[in-house]
């Protein structure tokens, strides 16, 4: 129900924004910035003109006290862009992506008529949302990773200066990781070293550390995870879940690989305690990490409890919920609860279109 409410709220906001855009005849950008005086982060929406894409951000011109001002917004600052001349279906697709309804987003994008695409930048924005939704759907287990990866790679080639270029390489790294191709994952994540943003570079380091962890290069993994976890200057508000948060989870996984389960659990419990109440996605990720550590330690009942937190408390975190449900199947069987294992398989198939052998 909460997901439906969120979706309705987004659609309402979209309609208001679209109306305002038509009246003002301007592009819009929704972004995050930090107040220089207070140090507080805030979101804002500004009307103006989207002038240019670069691989590190967007050049945006707006009116400030009766004069034109042009700013370079970093890619990690940008929540979304809206073009004055864009098709309404593109805005609707963004709404569906925001709430994790990737299939619906793709349906919206497929409904866009060729004649409604007025500029090259709009065409690139449509294609980015298409490949992003396709990949996210595949990563959640409801699509083909090879097909999604091919689409992302084609997008990078066709739009080399798009402001989501490094996000696209990160998606390819995520797909390679999900496929167990750690060599390819390391290669894709290394592409993020070319970014100007330290936050974007840190995300690449975390991906490389994860690849090192999965190939049992524990010293390299711990060094990279620690490097990012200790980067106090990272602009955490502008990097989604947060490279530092992900690095700390990675450190916990590395400790668990070394059978230091108490150290791993202490790291994750401290992270969970420091997570804001509203950061539900981060909470879901940390609970999944707790489930992994408990399972590795042979504490199946506690692993089940951790994974059930994700299933029951964070329905909007679709990808994390699928991970939790897939992890629960063998745990239920280990505990002799074949009925629960069967129900979980059925839920994965019927609700998320994920087969479980």
Average pLDDT, to the nearest integer? Answer: 89
Reading off the top of the CATH hierarchy, the class of the domain at 279-357 is best stated as Mainly Alpha
- Give helix % range: 55-70%
Radius of gyration computed on alpha carbons: 21 Å
Computed structural class: alpha+beta
Helical run tally: 15
CATH-derived topology of the domain at 279-357: Serine Threonine Protein Phosphatase 5, Tetratricopeptide repeat
Task: Write out the strand line-up for the largest beta sheet, numbering strands in chain order.
Answer: 4-3-2-1-5
- Name the CATH architecture of the domain at 279-357: Alpha Horseshoe
**Distance N terminus to C terminus?**
30 Å
Proportion of strand residues: 5-15%
The arrangement of helices and strands along the chain is: HEEEEEHHHHHHHHHHHHHH
* Largest sheet entry: 5 strands, antiparallel
Runs in which pLDDT lies below 50 for 5 or more consecutive residues are 1-9, 15-23
Beta strands, count: 5
* Overall geometry: globular
